[in-house]
Amino acid sequence: MIDEARVIEMAREGDSSAFETILERYEKPVFNAAYRIVANYEDAADVTQTVFLKVHQKLGTYKPEHKFFSWIYRIAVNEAINLAKRRRWERPLEDVVAARQGDSVDHLARIARDELIQGALRALKTDYRVVVVLKYFLEMSYKEIGDIVGIPEKTVKSRLFTGRELLRQALVQRGYSR
């Protein structure tokens, strides 16, 4: 398997199969990050498509001394934030789960829990939602989050502290208890 640096260099030189390798590696994580921020499957798919168009267009501006992972996630997070702000995802939405015939009780419980968490995330302002998603859903370090969002680590920690408390309050308001 070719290392990531070589694949990126090949893609920068116009190798379409190398770009496909990048797409295959990052498409799902980019989609997941976008989905957690915009809270809508179609919007997350649109964000993902836009991200990879921008990655393709701006690959020449990527500086190899930085992590590619951080560079692509920064584009993804910025696109998702921009869409979320345009769509005004700041307002809380109802958490409605429609039971499908044939689903197991455990499966329905997981769906209900996921919808509850997603609804609580949507209740957070974008600044808090982004750091919570990056830390707890994508398991990034404070430094990586700071690099992606463009804020100091201290600010990441502060936003996480506030975001966790707001998320806890939103979950309690929606009836969630451990």
Summarize the helices and strands and which ones pair or pack.
Elements (H helix, E strand, L loop, with lengths): L3 H9 L3 H23 L2 H18 L9 H20 L17 H19 L2 H12 L4 H8 L3 H21 L5
Brief rundown of the structure:
By secondary structure, this protein is mainly α.
Structure overview:
The chain has about 180 residues and is mainly alpha-helical. About 75% of the residues lie in helices and about 0% in strands. The chain contains 8 helices and no strands. It has helices at about 5-10, 15-40, 40-60, 70-85, 105-125, 125-135, 140-150, 155-175. The longest helix is centred in the first third of the chain and has 23 residues, at about 15-40. The termini are far apart. The relative contact order is 0.11.
Which properties best describe this structure?
globular, 2 domains
Helix content: over 70%
**CATH fold node name of the largest domain:** Rna Polymerase Sigma Factor, Chain: A
Termini distance?
A: 44 Å
Q: In terms of structural class, how would the helical and strand content be classed? A: mainly alpha
